[in-house]
TrEMBL record:
One Pfam family, short name: DUF3799
Protein name according to UniProt: Putative exodeoxyribonuclease 8 PDDEXK-like domain-containing protein
Originating organism: Nocardioides marmoriginsengisoli
InterPro entries in alphabetical order: PDDEXK-like_dom_sf (IPR011604), Put_RecE_PDDEXK-like_dom (IPR024432)
Record domain Putative exodeoxyribonuclease 8 PDDEXK-like: where: 47-258
Amino acid sequence: MLVPVRKEHPVSAVLVRNLNEHTYHNDTTTLSASGAKILLGKRPPAPDSEALAFGRLVHTVILEPQNLDTYAVLNADEIGLTVKGEKSDNPKATKAWREAVFAAKRDGLTVIDPAELAHAQALADAIAAHPEAGRLLAAATEHELSAYAEHPSGARVRARFDLVIPGSLGDIKACRDADPKMFDRTVHALGYHISAANYIDIARANGLTVDRFDLICVEKEPTPGGEYRVAVMEIHKDAIEKGRELMADACARWLALGKCINLPSYGDGRHVVDLPPYVYNADFEDIQINLGEAS
């Protein structure tokens, strides 16, 4: 568990409000859960991936609507006209569109189209309309709160809380599948238990009373009936304890690497590769095989 450190200590536990997201994410002097996952072997998504960009938009709509002015909502069909002022078959290839995008980016804005904003707003509305998710949103006392503390290993760690709620922390996720019956695999695959442990321990180090970590998940695709399904899931204390162990491993590796973040190597020796266990099962013929994209 993390412990609050004395105020005069050079690496103090501290809460920082209104910290710019870019400044937070580009801090190389502290270790986040995202960095820890890389150190533990999870390759990070591309920083400019569509999934990450849309996730940031959803967070902005829900948690920081005052920052929507950092987006330029541009309609390609309306802007991307031909030199004759007529509708183009490929509006994003027109000079008018390229100039509009260039001007927006020059001003430091992120370009999105109206459909993307409407999609993000629909997800936000679904969360607000969900009884438990809406209750958590209404109960939150802080949004997008950055926090720092000292890990027992000596590593300085950081977290950015989506929602600080009396007794808990909330994290909003736009995902493909929010089925609680299957989400344990997602928690493991994406390391949400590592995030939960890091967030809870940093919050406690800063004097916050936190006993629970809630995922507020909304599916990105609607049901056939046009609804966006929402699920609120509390990460089990045993999973959080496992995440705490993994976070400690990552902190130790980070310090050993001189506070650099990198994927671990596959070792210098030889590996023997076998078939997965299910292949040897007598019922293997009934199993569908996904050959993937490897050649």
